[in-house]
Amino acid sequence: MENDEVILLDFWPSMFGMRVRVTLAEKGIEYEYKEEDLFSSKSPLLLKMNPVHKKIPVLIHNGKPVCESFVVVEYIDEVWKDNEAPLLPSDPYERAQARFWANYTDKLYDFGRRIWTVKTEEFAAGKKDLIDPLKLLEEAALGDKPYFGGESFGFLDIALIGFYSWFYTYETICNFSIEAECPKIAAWGKRCMQRESVSKSLADAHKICEAVVEFRKKYGLE
Asked: Can you say whether residue 159 is alpha, beta or left, with left for phi > 0 and alpha for psi between -120 and 50 degrees?
């Protein structure tokens, strides 16, 4: 849609924000990126545009805010439906399944936090909490398909791909290999990274790890 004003309020290491960045890139939408420093204070614009949760990501389309990552992704898919292929399946059952597993991926955020926000002696429990749902996604949702949606990159891939940029951090801090535990998920992530919309939208994995290491030192978690 020509002459639309599109602004994204985001925080660079956010896997939820990465979902929106990848979607915008997939649809070829130009937008203005506004970084929120969630470690210090939230901007007046963020508080105005998302007064309920006061969280990123927020898409501002012609002055109107759309909040929550999955809501934003679906909004983009519907509004810019003529830009590239749809991200959600056309079949109602397949669409319901994609939404179900996408919501399940949100659990990985809490499981991941149990690795990088706890002391070293608690790593074992955090590692298991993270690996188990990844294995379930691998077996029940991905299988032998190249993408979660089958032959094409879609909604569920977008839901999970932001977490892929955090895998290096989890592995480095907890000293284990996700590829060894979940080889199909690892291969899927590498396949997704071959897409320009993904590789240019995801935060640098090493930069995330450096930031997390500094966080852990600051709060005496090492």
From this structure: alpha
